Amino acid sequence: MKLIKNIRAGKVNFLNFLVLSILLSCNSIANSQENTKSLLGNFIEVKVLDKVSSKNRVLKIKIGEEKRFKNILIKALKCINSKFDDNPEITAYLQVKDLTNKDNNEVFVFNGWTFSSSPSIRPFDHPVYDIWLTKCYY
Fold it and tell me: In this structure, are residues 83 and 35 in contact, taking their beta carbons and an 8 Å threshold?
């Protein structure tokens, strides 16, 4: 009889532990989502180099909107600032269309994440233009 009571008590303790751990993990997920939201920006700033004329131009683009620069169309979908102040990392999801390319098979010349500190991780490869991410702000 004593063994059955111990087993029941063990099950109750295990269920209490399980419920408590689920509640704590839900709380930490909610906190991390709030922290991530505070790191998201509303605007990005990119520097565009025209390789033909060797001129730079800084473009400010609102998240979700497209900005045209000569023959390319740049759209920023998301940008995130890092949590660390000493070595900030800025990350943005960009889509770039070449308006001179009429080939329907290739919609974007670039579609992906780009990093301010390491643009060579996902390079924007275009014969005429280079794009560098410089800022993500509110």
Answer: yes
**With bands split at pLDDT 50, 70 and 90, how would you rate the model's confidence at 111?**
very high
Mapped to the 3 state alphabet, what secondary structure does the chain carry? CHHHHHHHHHHHHHHHHHHHHHHHHHHHHHHHHHHHHHHECCEEEEEEEECCCCEEEEEEEECCCEEEECCEEEEEEEEEECCCCCCCCEEEEEEEEECCCCCCCCCCCEEEEEECCCCCCCCCCCCCEEEEEEEEEC
Calpha distance 30→88 (Å, rounded): 24
Q: How far apart are CA 92 and CA 71, in angstroms?
A: 21
Nearest of 69, 63, 71 to residue 135 by alpha carbon: 63
Angle at CA of residue 40, ends 42 and 81, nearest 5°:
110
CA pair distance 67, 48, nearest whole angstrom:
12
0.90 surpassed by pTM: no
Q: Which residues pair with 69 in a beta bridge?
A: 72
